[in-house]
Design brief:
This protein is α+β, with helices and mostly antiparallel strands. It has 3 domains: 182 residues, sav2460 like domains (Lipoxygenase-1, Sandwich); 143 residues; 184 residues, Rossmann fold. 29% of the residues lie in helices and 22% in strands. The strands form 3 sheets. Strands 1, 2, 3, 4, 5, 6, 7, 8, 9, 10, 11 and 12 form a 12-stranded mixed β-sheet that branches. It is globular, with a radius of gyration of 28 Å. The N and C termini lie far apart (68 Å).
């Protein structure tokens, strides 16, 4: 049965030898780019176009045409290729200059026996002069197809540049029906981010009403490694030349670490990121299909009511019932596709979760039972979990690259206040502080002994109960600061540390600080901000938020933004520079692909568990030996 795809939807491919048929209605150029696991096109020799129509496993037409037939043999593409993007471009100066002025491009993917496997009509285009219509991509040893429909108003140069091709302008000079041939010596390593998909920070955290993002694009390469080509990964056992699903058409069993990277830690990080992207896209496809079904139902019902002859008798009821039946069939098929994809992701999650290292793992993961203080810091840290309403019980870890590029803010005054235990504002503030302590404990646990320090400002002493795991283990760099004098002293100390570190960096002696200055990375927890802060203290806190992360000083505010209303817009830049977290589940995290409102859940130890005390005890013991 042919899969009718909508934008963002993916579908497994049961064949690896394909013919992609394209029909537009006006002459267009058709081509394909070969990308690595990050979608990077490593030079003009990775682009199939009329000037160079044949690449290993891919062949395109030599001229513009109303209809195209591209041949693809996925078993013949180089091992380094993980993506094949099929693009269309309008020739310059020979007809329409935008896809919005031409019929919607129709694409169909056929197998070697001429069976139609999938089709996709690229709708919704307007000013775009080039578009990625389809993407074939490798996932867990099998190939899938994704309906893309990603357009570029600046044409083919912008499309190719977005895929990392620096010589895109030279390659994409489209005149009539041809493109100049590629420069065989040209290649490069990608150093920019995708506009959509790979290379973007998948966890783009936004607060509704705040335009700037609370987070920025992240380079997903290891922070302590230079940029090199990705090492080759072991190939799966041969299946007759086809990296395809098993003989019964089912995808290959999921494997933990089934992603690229220099280490298992990096591979797991990239695999989690891939799961997040897949869930975002398949949910977007489902929602789009349901919206289409609802819109068509409404249109058909309006047409039935507009016909005077159908208003009376049983005919009108039959028309309405038939329309609703068609709507349910469409929505049901979309749900079946979503359920299939969710089943694959849940199976992958069940394999990946037990394999995660402590920095990535939930507190109930058995890996914490055998915890020992590490010799090296990790590349990322789990801040919590993310999920969508359609995907329960599947949860995707929210991983933040270390060292943190931005401070954190645990909102103790969320407006979406749940019923029950947290309906009391006092209980909610206590829960926010407990979430802060759990994060601080995790940061201490995943760093080598003596390389991370935690300080606390608690002006009124309201957080003493929640702070007990840290204070009881003796893991604070100093007792919690209280009162105006204590606030001023801590901020003065950390401000001086930032100043000295910046001077050391400018002097070419990064890391060399005076003996009396703690060289460890610092986390400052501020409870009940802005209580106890005068104007001078607020200014210093803003300075730490802006300048601290670059030299190892990080903020973790536990605060209700409404409490700072008296400062007017003065503190708006501070809030926007921090990543907002919540002590209870709240739907506010936006992904960069389709803008889903993901529900965030904090990373907390299970109720009644003593794992936090056990882990902090190990940290305290190691710190004693370190001293």
């Amino acid at each position: 049965m042919t899969a009718e795809l909508v934008r963002g939807q993916n579908h497994p491919l049961s064949q690896v030898r394909l013919e992609i048929r394209i029909s537009v209605g006006v002459p267009v150029l058709a081509g394909a780019t070969l990308g690595d696991e990050n979608g990077t096109v490593h030079g003009a020799q990775w682009v199939a176009h009329p000037g160079a129509p044949a690449l290993p496993g891919v062949e395109v037409a030599r001229q513009a045409a109303v209809e195209h037939r591209l041949t693809v043999d996925l078993s013949a593409v180089p091992e380094a290729v993980h993506r094949v993007d099929v693009f269309l471009a309008l020739p310059a100066g020979t007809g329409p200059s935008r896809f919005g002025a031409v019929p919607a491009p129709r694409t169909a993917v056929h197998g070697p026996d001429d069976t139609e496997l999938a089709r996709y009509t690229v709708t919704g285009l307007d000013t775009e002069a080039a578009v990625i219509a389809l993407e074939l991509y490798r996932r867990q040893g099998a190939w899938k197809i994704r309906a893309m429909g990603q357009g570029y108003a600046d044409g083919l140069p912008a499309l190719l540049a977005d895929q990392g091709l620096r010589e895109a302008d030279a390659l994409a000079v489209v005149r009539g029906a041809t493109i100049p041939g590629p420069d065989p010596m040209a290649s490069h390593d990608r150093d920019t981010h995708h506009a959509h998909g790979a290379g973007r920070n998948p966890y783009d955290t936004r607060v509704p009403g705040d335009a700037p993002a609370l987070g920025s694009p992240i380079d997903h390469t290891h922070p302590r490694r230079p940029r090199h080509p990705t090492p080759p990964q072991p190939s799966p056992p041969s299946t007759g030349g086809a990296a395809a699903p098993s003989g019964d058409g089912q995808p290959a069993p999921p494997v933990a670490g089934d992603a690229v990277g220099w280490s298992m830690e990096e591979r797991l990080y990239n695999q989690v990121w891939g799961m997040f992207e897949d869930l975002a896209r398949t949910t977007a496809a489902y929602r789009s299909a349901v919206d289409f079904a609802d819109a068509r139902l409404e249109k058909e019902l309006d047409q039935a009511l507009a016909d005077p002859r159908a208003r009376l008798g049983d005919g009108n009821a039959a028309v309405r019932e038939a329309a609703r039946s068609r709507r349910e069939q469409l929505a049901g098929r979309a749900r079946a596709v979503l359920d299939r994809d969710l089943a694959q992701l849940i199976a992958e999650s069940e394999v990946v979760e037990p394999a995660l290292p402590p920095a990535y793992a939930r507190w109930d993961n058995p890996v914490w039972r055998g915890y020992r203080v590490p010799a090296e810091p990790p590349m990322a840290l789990r801040l919590g979990d993310l999920h969508l309403p359609e995907s329960l019980p599947l949860r995707i870890p929210l991983l933040a690259v270390l060292p943190l590029e931005h401070g954190l803010w645990i909102d103790s005054g969320t407006t979406a206040m749940p019923e029950g235990a947290f309906a009391d504002p006092v209980a909610l503030r206590r829960a926010a502080m407990e979430a802060a302590v759990a994060l601080a404990a995790r940061l201490l646990a995943v760093h080598p002994a003596g390389e991370f320090a935690v300080r606390v400002i608690d002006p009124a002493g309201a957080g003493a109960r929640a702070l007990w795991p840290l204070t009881g283990a003796g893991l604070l760099a100093a007792p919690p600061a209280s009162g105006a004098a204590g606030v001023a002293e801590v901020l003065e100390r950390l401000t001086r540390r930032v100043d000295l570190a910046q001077m050391a960096v400018r002097g070419g002696a990064a890391g060399e600080l005076p003996d009396e200055v703690d060289a460890a990375r610092q986390l400052l927890i501020v409870n009940d901000f802005p209580h106890g802060f005068d104007d001078r203290a607020v200014t210093r806190l803003r300075y730490l938020a802006d300048e601290g992360p670059a030299v190892g000083v990080h903020l973790l505010l536990v605060a209700d933004r409404a409490d700072t209303a008296g400062y007017g817009p003065l503190l708006d830049p501070l809030w926007r520079s921090l990543m907002r977290l919540t002590p209870v589940p709240d739907a506010y995290v936006a992904d960069p692909w389709v803008g889903h409102a993901w529900t965030y859940e904090p990373a907390l130890p299970p109720a009644g568990s003593r794992i936090l005390e056990q882990v902090l005890g190990e940290v305290a013991t190691a710190r004693t030996k370190y001293k």
